[in-house]
Amino acid sequence: MRVIEVNGGGLDNLKIVERPNSNPATGEILVKWHATSLNFHDYLVAIGAIPVAENRVPMSDGAGEVIGVGAGVTKWKVGDKVMSLFFPNWIEGTPTLAKTMKISGESTDGYIAEQSCISAEAVTAMPNDYTYGEAATLPCAALTAWRGLVTEGKIKAGDSVLIEGTGGMSIFGLQIALAAGATVYATTSSEEKAARLKTIGVVGVVNYKTDSRWGKTIFKMSGGGVDHVLDVGGGSTMKQSIEAAKIGGSIISIGILGNGRKGEITFPKLFFKHLRLIGVAVDCRESQEAMVRAINVSGFKPLIDKSFGFEELGAAFRYQETGQHFGKVVLEW
């Protein structure tokens, strides 16, 4: 069976190799993977910015079909459609070092593989009526937005939310917020994307390329700030996110896009706005199962910008680099 391996970092060093087929051990299932999706974390692994073991199989998202069941497994049967977990060992409860040390596509092999054996505990069911490509967008980006707004933010009807940009996590945040009955504001870098955001429910959009003080603009536009900010830029956006938040609001830090590893925080604003600032890195299986139940009720589908084939992982990442995408980029095979 074919897998793609990271060897030394760099998109030109992503190699398709043959590995022997394997059989599931006790407590394992054998999954035939059909799709994965691109996340910024996967990109950092692929280019070598996150060091990984030699011959690591990247990609933290996977959706596929169970084709084998090991001894002792009763939850799954051949033919079940499943999707992966970002943290395979984080089943429930609050995060701990032990629960989050194993990361799919980083410290353990990911899902750009034709098949693999994994723990029967390390998957959930796909949502009803989802394709493999659609389901593969959920385990990292959607679950991160879910945790930020639902698990941590306790979002409710009538709240206001700011999403930043039009990448996967941001668009999922938009969809989750709208499903909860919230009002959504957004930032983007193009008028074309701004127009599209408005067609899917965003009430106010600011172009951060032409408005460097977009946080203040959102604060005024929303009538005194938003309840929840999904901050995807880290250091490159945090100052403006603080400006955009209402007094007593929350900022959920979920990314470091735009060279945002380090940055400036206006601490007096953080204090005197009485803000709650929390860093979020995906979530556990229990929350993923809750998200799937909510999707089955609401019926929302991910926005997929473009689909590539198994052999086109490098090309898909190069497309991601351009920043043209609106929603998720997937690979299907």
How many discrete domains?
2
> What portion of residues is helical?
25-40%
Uncertain residue ranges: none
User: What is the radius of gyration computed over CA atoms, rounded to a whole number of angstroms?
Assistant: 20 Å
Q: Which term fits the overall shape?
A: globular
Number of helices: 11
Proportion of residues in extended strands: 15-25%
- Report mean pLDDT, rounded to a whole number: 95
Tell me, what is the CATH class of the largest domain? Answer: Alpha Beta
Give the number of DSSP strands.
15
Q: CATH superfamily membership of the largest domain, which one? A: Medium-chain alcohol dehydrogenases, catalytic domain
CATH architecture of the largest domain: Alpha-Beta Complex
SSE arrangement, N to C: EEEHEEHEEHHEHEHEHEHEHEHEHE
CATH fold-level topology of the largest domain:
Quinone Oxidoreductase, Chain A, domain 1
Provide the structure class. alpha/beta
Biggest pleated sheet: 7 strands, mixed
What characteristics describe this protein?
333 residues, alpha/beta, Quinone Oxidoreductase, Chain A, domain 1, Rossmann fold, 2 domains, seven-stranded mixed β-sheet, six-stranded parallel β-sheet, 11 helices, 29% helix, globular
Structural write-up:
- The protein has 333 residues and is of the alpha/beta class.
- The chain folds into two domains: 2-137 and 302-332, Medium-chain alcohol dehydrogenases, catalytic domain (Quinone Oxidoreductase, Chain A, domain 1, Alpha-Beta Complex), CATH 3.90.180; 142-279, Rossmann fold (3-Layer(aba) Sandwich), CATH 3.40.50.720.
- 29% of the residues lie in helices and 25% in strands.
- It contains eleven helices and 15 strands.
- It has helices at residues 40-47, 97-100, 132-135, 138-152, 168-179, 191-199, 214-221, 238-244, 267-272, 285-298, 313-322, and strands spanning 2-6, 14-18, 28-37, 63-69, 81-84, 115-119, 123-125, 160-164, 183-188, 204-207, 226-231, 245-253, 276-279, 304-308, 328-332.
- Strands 3, 4, 5, 6, 7, 14 and 15 form a seven-stranded mixed beta sheet that branches. Strands 10-9-8-11-12-13 form a six-stranded parallel beta sheet, sandwiched between helices.
- Strand 9, helix 6 and strand 10 (204-207) form a beta-alpha-beta unit.
- Helix 4 packs across helix 5 and helix 7 (214-221) runs parallel beside helix 8.
- The longest helix is centred in the middle third of the chain and has 15 residues, at 138-152.
- The two termini are 13 Å apart.
